[in-house]
Amino acid sequence: MKNNILSALIGAGIVLTAVAIVSSSSDELHPVEARPSTVKPFELPEQMSIAGESMPMERLDVQESLDREILVNSYWQSNNLLMLKRSDKWFPVIAPILAAEGIPEDFKYLALIESGLQNIVSPAGAAGPWQIMKTTGREAGLIINSEVDERYHMEKATRVACAYLKEAYGKFGNWTLAAASYNMGMAGTARRLEEQKVNSYYDLRLNSETARYVFRLAAVKHIHEHLSEYGYVYHQTEGYTLPDFDTVQVQGAVASWVDWAQERGMTYKDLRLYNPWIRSSKLTNSSNNTYSILVAK
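RE: above sequence
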């Protein structure tokens, strides 16, 4: 009897042990999976510049402001990877225009922080990759109406942004304030400088968005130029690309862009994708403008 009880207890123990082993092997994480992600602060660079202009890195407030933007942007990995991929698509279009217009190449990152290189509309009504307001766009010669909005035309919008930045540089005498004014406006920036009796962006007390703006520009530039230091593994072949295009000139009205696209062997979706400045299913073209339509080969 005692032997039977002992045998039963031993058997039950073996079963429980087996269950525990199976449970452990199926439910517990592998040691690598259980290890938390490495989250750490980064050492700030000793020197930083925007458009060739040095940032006063010896100042504690500058260090803290830059540190905030580096931390926020470096740990927003999904957004950073998307921006990198879109940069591979659009920087080859933007950079040559900046060079031709005499604008420092660093300003390609301004379009990146403005829109993520997307055709978005801000709550204030700024639109396109460079976030241009209607008034600014029209004053610069862009066509903006219910059927056509050239703020979504990458090349034309980039040239408008260049014209603005050149004017701002002429007004303020440095690219840092020109960049800040792209967010705040030239009049607002000039007013703050006069009110506070200073001549440097870094000495201005500003609204939170503009106060962060140049630091965000600097941080995104720095992260993208030193990816491995911030834990990113990214190969240029992983970025997005544009197809090769044929260009078709349209001088008159178009009754239906859907029909127009189908006649040229493309979908209406592709027509709007590669020509986002088209904002309607038709083109009245009462002013008899000539439009260049990109058709993917």
